[in-house]
Structure formats: structure tokens, C-alpha cells
Specification:
This protein is mainly alpha-helical and about 200 residues long. Helix content is about 70%, strand content about 0%. The chain has one domain.
Amino acid sequence: MNVELRRKLFHIFSILLWLLPLFLLPKPLLLLLCLLVILLNLSLVFKLGKDRLKPIYDLIYYFERENNREKPSIQALWLNLGVFLSFLFFPKECSAVGVVITAVGDGFAGIVGYHFGKTKIGNKSLEGALAFFVSTSLVLFPFLGSKAFLVALAGTLVEFFPKGLTTTFCFPWWVAWLLIFKGLKNRRWQFLGLYRA
């Protein structure tokens, strides 16, 4: 398995793990966990205790791109900062959608874009963008109905933000904001236990 596929599969599953504490922990503990994860990320980025934590660094390097090894776990740090903002300011159900779109949309866009992307748009590909839109639409449709297509389209467009503005930081809180302020929450969440009227 090549590094990019390994990275993106890890990306999908590790980000989706945030759904467990989101729904199982009370908000103060959830935020404390986020802060602890961010502190761990910071220690990894600055390579604190690298000699004592060699197995952890070996695992990180196994999933890390060559050009990110100078600051290992930097993208995870940006992601976890975005997740923290989402959990801090928005209701669970909206934060959950932000986590899912970050994991699934960005993950599948990366896999398809890397392996099949031929039509370049900046540093992204049309094929990756389509993968983002389709995967996100399919995952969100049970929760948002036809509004899932609007969220997926908006997310696909955000994927094309300038390279300096990391999408893994933006997606978790931006999607939660979109759901709240654009009135895209859906009563189907109540049936699934994700929303209380």
C-alpha cells in the first residue's frame, strides 16, 4: 500500500473516532480531551521527547508524507484545533456533521485525486472534487435529506481554498456554522438520536 493511500485511510478512520467522545462524554470532558490531544500534537510537532517516544514517532512517520516529516503531526494539529472550535461553539449534531465531512470528503477526495486525478484545478483535481461531492452527499443524505447536496457542494468549493488555509482546520467548524446559520439542521436527526427538538 502506498503512503498516500495509507495516509488517507488513517485520516478517515482517525477523524471519525472523534464521534465517540462527542456523543459519549459531557461537554467539559470532551473539551478537556480536545485540549490534551492538541497538547500532544504540539509536543509531536516540536519533537519533544522524541527519543523516549520513538514508537509513537515511528507510527507517525509511517503515515506521514515525506515533506511533513520536519514537523510531524502538523496537519493533525490543525485538524484538532478545528474540531475543538467546532465542539466549543456548536451543538453536537452540527459538530458531528463537520467531523464526518472532514473525514469522508477530504479523505476520498485525496484518494481519488491522487490515484485518478487527471484534470488539474490549481493543486487539486476535478476527479478528487467529484469524489468529495459524491462521498459527502452519500454520507450526509440520511441526516440532511436533499440539503446534503448543498452542504456537499459548499464543502467541495471550500476544498479549493488557497493552500495556506488548511481545509482540515476549516471544515469541522465551518460546516457546523453552515448548518446552524443557514438553517440546514433536519428533524431526521431527532429520529436518529442526534438532535433534540
